[in-house]
Amino acid sequence: MTNILQNRIEFVLFFDVTNGNPNGDPDAGNRPRTDPETGHGLVSNVCLKRKIRDYVSIAKGDEAGFEIFQTNGSILNNQQKRAYDALDLKPEPKKLPKDKSVAAAVTDWMAKTFFDVRAFGAVMTTEVNAGQVRGPVQIEFARSIEPVMPMEISITRGSVTNEKDADKERTMGSKYILPYGLYRVHGYINAAMADKSGFTKDDLEILMIALRDMLDLDRSATRGEMAARELVVFRHDSKLGNAPAHRLIERVSVKRASAGGPVDVDSPEAAALPPARKFRDYLIEVDEADMPKGVALERPWA
Fold this sequence. Notes:
Layout: E1 9-20, E2 24-25, E3 31-32, E4 40-43, H1 45-60, H2 76-86, H3 100-113, H4 115-120, E5 121-125, E6 129-134, E7 137-139, E8 142-147, E9 151-157, E10 171-189, H5 191-197, H6 201-213, E11 225-236, H7 245-249, E12 252-256, E13 263-264, H8 268-271, E14 282-286, E15 295-298
Antiparallel strand pairs: 1-10, 1-11, 2-3, 4-8, 5-6, 7-10, 8-10, 9-10, 11-15, 12-13, 12-14
Helix pairs in contact: 1-6, 2-3
């Protein structure tokens, strides 16, 4: 592929959930994930990357180079064998071809074919060995701005599975929801790794669209109402970057909106406010003063 990304990028994404469970924990009865020490809500990076994969699969999956390697139910060895078939090679169990150029061609075929290999990387050293790709796109765990309050809601089932149970009373069940939570997640795109995986400017464009629209294609009764609310992007002029990532990300802050003006979320003034129940209860601020030379601030949804 051509048009390889040449700019290091960091971004901050905000999304919210209303009356839903953004990421249930299977080890806790599908209760919304939380930090046990602070009560803040969590959404795993694996969950977010799954949503991106699903969006790209729907939006671009029928185009060359935008297949998804890790789809739900896929058999990865079969996916990796396709590289050998395309290059007219026979794989040896757990081994790459001895010729380094041939081995590189196998791995390169995987990166060129699958968007998620090119973006997130993949360890493909299984029975059918297709090597490893270190992806340029890294997404962290999302964390809620304030502590969340999971609620267990009782539900009833008005139907039965078998005819023999037709006279039984309705069965009871339960589900968890959060009345409201605003989440923040940080992402990093390493242009030096893009050189190696083949991540292009076109890949970046579809990634940014996926961040905006992925929640609209992932609706369910369990997840309630989820929406991508704000995206703040720091784009460097160079491949290696022009400023430390953490200093740029720290420029993005969130405050509680109040009649007397914005207040820090951990201040006594914020504690006296009613619990947040909508996006308008928050204010996202970005310090744009004295931006480091060679770094451009973008707010594409503003």
